[in-house]
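Preliminary data (for renewal application), BES complex.
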Amino acid sequence: MASISDPCSLSSLAKCVTKHLNLTYHVDFDSHIIKGKVALTIEVLEDHFSSFTLDTRDLKIFSVTANGQEAKFTMGPKHRFKGTPLEITIPFDLSRGQHAIMEVCYETSPNSSALQWLSPEQTAGRKSPYLFSQCQPHHCRSMVPCQDSPSVKHTYYAQISVPNELVAVMSALREGQEPDPQGSSRIIYRFRQPVPMPSYLIAIAVGALESREIGPRSRVWSEKELVDKAAFEFSETETMLKTAEDLAGPYVWGHYDILVLPPSFPYGGMENPCLTFATPTLLAGDRSLSNVIAHEISHSWTGNLVTNKTWEHFWLNEGHTVYLERMIGRCMVSEQFRQFKAMGGWKDLQDSVNTFGANNPLTNLVPSLHEVDPEDAFSSVPYEKGFALLYHLEQLMGGPEVFMGFVKSYIQLFSHSSVTTEEWKNYLFTYFKDKADILNKVDWNAWIHTPGMPPVQPQYDTTLADACIALCQRWVQAKEGDLGGFKEADLRTFSSHQLIEFLSLLLQEEPLPLSNVQKMQEVYKLNAYMNAEIRFRWLRLCVRSKWDDMVPMALKMATDQGRMKFTRPLFRDVYNFDTYRDEAVRVFLAHRSAMHCVTAGLVAKDLKLDSNQSTVL
Ligand code: BES
Ligand code: ZN
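Predicted structure:
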């Protein structure tokens, strides 16, 4: 039997498993507290079972019962990122195979790391407050006492009481609503998730939400100010779902809705089942950033059906999901487009390896997370080293169709379970048993357990990248006094994907002379671009070339939205522009209280501030 341990959870994983979770929530916007009750249905895995431990973080526990009888509980010592173990002793013994219902009454802290409470001024409508959660990787424990490990899967049911001018949505099927009998002017929303899923996929949002239908099984949700724009941006959703089903098998989650969050949402997208959470920075107006939706849709199979057993195997979630996302791009656009995106991904991998350092063990495909906060380990490595390995195997095994056969079969076999890299690899060898000689030649240790870039660099078709590479080289080689050859027309045939690639290529070079980026603004008018992926790279380029005038714009983008992929590098680049180091710190401290706490914590580390420091060094 596989050993049961998770370096990121303090809960008893060998003694029992949670099968179902029944949540009753009262959301209080005045105190920024959720008063909650959770009933966990657990299955016992051992004889003489009478005590067990759940994960919590910053929760106030009021009472615990087991099958309705009062149970004793104590809180263990608080761990830096794992939180506080809730140790429960029940007043009877259970045997292997038995089930019991453990009920915990508790409330969350206003500082819950899973939750962000927004004031009306932080929303598009500026009239109502807003609450959203982000549980991945290990924050569910700060909103529900639970076995907060991706190795455990359960169904859930929830009843959420909120002020009746607001709407609650969750990562589940909507079951209806009714007035809250306990309080006038409140309403209860009910939800059911009938497919077993890990705790990190529990999600909730409450706000002045509206929705519009965008497909037979899909709606888009957001504040009313954004809902039309979002419906346009994500209109390809049903085509993507059908394409993904052709590739990976039936979509088992019933509905696929998208919620567009306020700008502080820390990720591009989050694959919460039945309801992807998305950053408003995807609303480019031309559907050009819809690959993020293809990515989150793909997680419906890789991640949500087949789940990494611990965060050390995170690449199984993200590497396969990037692989599927690019397969959807292949089907909906072209193979050349897939190759182009794959090349861009290799560059993202290089950037991550450079940022972490090529000897940093966190650049291993499977890093050790013993006493490592998974938030600190996050990077493009699991995404792009994972993709590169799968693409390399695709080429060795006979091409995209052949390798998709394996991916589909892997999904079927491991659906509704959680897997390790070892299990994945064993199945790869089983599926391709006729090609064992080729698989045995792969340098597995270099790919999986060695830091830095992979041992093999895949060759990609450069058709769509050639124009980007050529224009990048012209700018790199242009001498300061000789910039007359650049014309607005240089970009005429560029898609926004190619413009992004051109800017990414420039970011990998030594900073351009200031006169070159100023000339670039003069001819290409890049300041006017509102596409977040373009604007982000352009502002970084300017700050790295030490263009003073652009610093305020870079800091504005870093704080107007809070997607970590943008906010962290923008703050870091301004910090590294010595003249503006103090300004970066000052702006961060001024905005900190309005930022998502995870983003604020990581930016503080990036800017070398103590986690609680409130003044400039
Ligand atoms: N599941 C991730 C987001 C995540 C990862 C949240 C780790 C918390 C911890 C999501 O699917 C994701 O990868 N989003 C990317 C999309 C991109 C790779 C297309 C993002 O946010 O940019
Ligand atoms: Zn992902």
